[in-house]
Amino acid sequence: MISEILSAFNKESSHWPRDFRITEDESTMIGISYMLGHLTSGLLANPVAEIIGRRRSLVLDTMSFAAGFLLSAAGESTAALCAGRVLLGYPLVSTVGKILN
Predict the structure, then answer these.
(1) Does residue 85 fall inside a structural domain?
(2) Quick check: is 96 in a domain?
(3) For the chain, how many structural domains are there in total?
(4) For tag attachment on the chain, is the N or C end more exposed, with fewer CB atoms within 10 Å?
């Protein structure tokens, strides 16, 4: 679904400005960057929570989500958008794991 939406930015008939269009490779990177945050979270969430504690880990997740949101909203490049989406993807998996444990 995301790739279909992102591909709309690339079409010539699109109403978006020309400098806002993205390539197919950029569309792919933007789409998978969110899942890279999930992967990172799955590997690091429990060890980080064990080291710094669950409460501090949840605060870290909240800060990561806020930073990812700001970076995604204010970023002017594909790299900034991808980095923001990685930061957005990290806390969603780790927070659920901490709440269920």
Answers:
(1) yes
(2) yes
(3) 1
(4) N
Look at residue 21 and tell me if it is in a domain.
no
State the residue range of the domain holding 49: 30-100
Secondary structure of residue 22 in the 3-state scheme = coil
Place of tokens 């990290």: 90
Q: At what angle do helices 78-100 and 24-52 cross, to 10 degrees?
A: 40
DSSP 8-state code for residue 59 = H
Q: How many Å apart are CA 86 and CA 33, to the nearest integer? A: 5
CB 84, CB 72: distance < 8 Å: yes
Distance (Å, rounded) from C-alpha 71 to C-alpha 33?
A: 13
Question: Mean pLDDT of successive 10-residue segments in the chain (101 residues)?
Answer: 55 55 83 90 86 89 92 88 91 71 62
